[in-house]
Amino acid sequence: MPGSPVHAGVAADVADVTVGGAVGQAVGGALGRAATMDVEPIDRRLVHRVAMSEVYLTGSGVLGPDDYTVHAQWPRRHHFFSPERRGGDLVLAAETLRQAVILTAHRYYDVPLDHAFSMRGLSVELTGAGGGHALVPTEIDIRVGIDGVRSGSRGVTSFRAHLTFVHEGVVVARGTGDLQVLDSRLYARMRPTAVRSDALAPSSPMRRGVRLVPVASGTRPTWLVDMDLEHPVFFDHPLDHVPGMLVIEAARQAVDAVRGESGLSSSSFEGTFLSYLELDRPVLVSHVPGDGAGPPDDVLLAVHQDDRLAAELRLR
User: Would you give the end-to-end CA distance of the chain in angstroms?
Assistant: First the structure.
């Protein structure tokens, strides 16, 4: 899931909130737990976001060598995600994982803010125990374990992160992320002709940011990915590539189309991202016949651009 940075220049953020009653007790309990973890406020630059409303992390701390804790808060309601859904929201969990991995790289492995990241592998699984909380935001404690750290002359170049999401002592999600770090000069050399989203004509607004358009393509169900280049979640700031979270959302919609459903009900995602997807060229998602390697309800998808395989995805 290749990704470019939000460049320096966004000021650090501090929130001062006064609360009371039941909500105050809930927030106070969360802050009490956080106080034992040596947490620090989250600067939105550390998760590559501009809008504060799209930052879900509230603190982090060190547990030991290559072992960290990150605190997150999922909102009661959201204009795009469905945190109130019983069992949780798969794309919200994936976005929280993305933010936690990037935060860990910047804060604990000294990766500069102007570096880019590429998430070449990503998996998320909801346990079914999350979601359904409507009275107060959902507090999530995330255990982040790092292994396979590789470094070069300019610092860390890659690592693998293992994450466990816990709410009120219950595991609600698990995930992994394979992170590659690219310094700004290397990233510029790799993508000299990339076109940014703000240089393209805006498309029609889409609540879900993605619309799948069926196309004729042999015997495999195939869809053209139509995307909202000004969507406030996927394009929180101008990008020069299709963001990985948008690909996950497109895959979730494709699974519902394959199953003949409309509930965005997938509970797990596993993806391998082979190359950047450009914004100015068509992106196609195809259903791939099962390989027999997983459970029978798994749906396999392939993402192509310019007749090249760009990502392989498995959802359940």
Answer: 19
